[in-house]
């Protein structure tokens, strides 16, 4: 997909007609980061938001004792770094390349006139924020009410929705996460998450292939996530 097609899917641009999108596009600067490179850190001041054009980005937070929690894995068309636009305070998470990645960066100052001048842009951004709050509420409820295998199943289905491709015998999800990172996303220890994955594999629901899984029985995995 080319840059304009990917940007067109992002909440900011989806609200605009051709001319509007072309005008906003002039404020975009492209940034490339390599796998493992940090774009910004939690606590820093931030003045830009980003749309992923290519590759994957992980958003994480670090506890005072050094443990990490993954908030989300983002792929093409997804936006991040907008919280400090609406609420000018430090970055709430660290953004790191999970793969080599290409991003579109937009300065908060360049964006503000669009928010005030084009209500449809503000509405689309609010919608994106509302969707994130819904998802965060779901994640929070799952942490309290759902066991680790259920959370693993749900995380895999979420990743499948974003990164899944039909394969011969199922849905191939190349998530690029290490076992440790998958555990950080689920909010459990690596051992417990591995045990759940091994159990799913043994039941024939999925096959593990390095930093990817092939989901063989979507329905059973879905039922286990509920
Ligand atoms: P900002 O705080 O500017 O920088 C970190 C970004 O991570 C933040 O904006 C959001 O875009 C994003 N972010 C923060 N919390 C979450 C979350 N729970 N789920 C998805 N993205 C998030």
From TrEMBL:
Top-level lineage group: Bacteria
InterPro entries: cNMP-bd_dom, cNMP-bd_dom_sf, Env_Response_Regulators, HTH_CRP, RmlC-like_jellyroll, WH-like_DNA-bd_sf, WH_DNA-bd_sf
Signal peptide stretch: none
One protein family per Pfam: HTH_Crp_2
Alphabetical list of CDD domains matching this protein: CAP_ED
GO biological process terms held by the UniProt record: negative regulation of DNA-templated transcription; positive regulation of DNA-templated transcription
GO annotations of cellular component type: cytosol
Gene3D superfamilies tied to this protein: Jelly Rolls, Winged helix-like DNA-binding domain superfamily/Winged helix DNA-binding domain
Key words, A-Z: Activator, cAMP, cAMP-binding, DNA-binding, Nucleotide-binding, Repressor, Transcription, Transcription regulation
Cyclic nucleotide-binding domain: residues covered: 12-132
GO terms, molecular function: cAMP binding; DNA binding; DNA-binding transcription factor activity
Domain (HTH crp-type): residue spans on this chain: 146-219
PANTHER family tied to this protein: CRP FAMILY TRANSCRIPTIONAL REGULATORY PROTEIN, HTH-TYPE TRANSCRIPTIONAL REGULATOR ARCR
Protein name (database record): CRP-like cAMP-activated global transcriptional regulator
Organism: Thermostaphylospora chromogena
Lineage: Bacteria, Bacillati, Actinomycetota, Actinomycetes, Streptosporangiales
């Amino acid at each position: 997909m080319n840059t304009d097609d990917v940007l067109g899917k992002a909440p900011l641009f989806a609200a605009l007609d051709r001319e509007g999108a072309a005008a906003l596009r002039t404020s975009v600067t492209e940034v490339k980061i390599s796998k493992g490179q940090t774009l910004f850190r939690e606590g820093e001041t931030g003045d830009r938001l980003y749309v992923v054009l290519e590759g994957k980005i992980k958003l994480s937070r670090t506890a005072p004792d050094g443990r990490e929690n993954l908030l989300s894995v983002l792929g093409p068309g997804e936006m991040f770094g907008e919280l400090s636009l609406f609420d000018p305070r430090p970055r709430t998470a660290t953004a790191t390349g999970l793969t080599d990645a290409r991003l579109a960066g937009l300065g908060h100052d360049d964006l503000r006139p669009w928010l005030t001048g084009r209500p449809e842009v503000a509405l689309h951004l609010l919608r994106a924020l509302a969707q994130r709050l819904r998802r965060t509420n779901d994640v929070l409820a799952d942490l309290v009410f759902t066991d680790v295998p259920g959370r693993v199943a749900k995380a895999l289905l979420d990743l499948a929705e974003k990164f899944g491709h039909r394969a011969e015998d199922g849905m191939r999800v190349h998530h690029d996460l290490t076992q440790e990172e998958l555990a950080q996303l689920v909010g459990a220890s690596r051992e417990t998450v591995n045990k759940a994955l091994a159990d799913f594999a043994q039941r024939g629901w999925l096959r593990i292939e390095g930093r990817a899984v092939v989901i063989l029985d979507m329905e059973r995995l879905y039922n286990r996530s509920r």
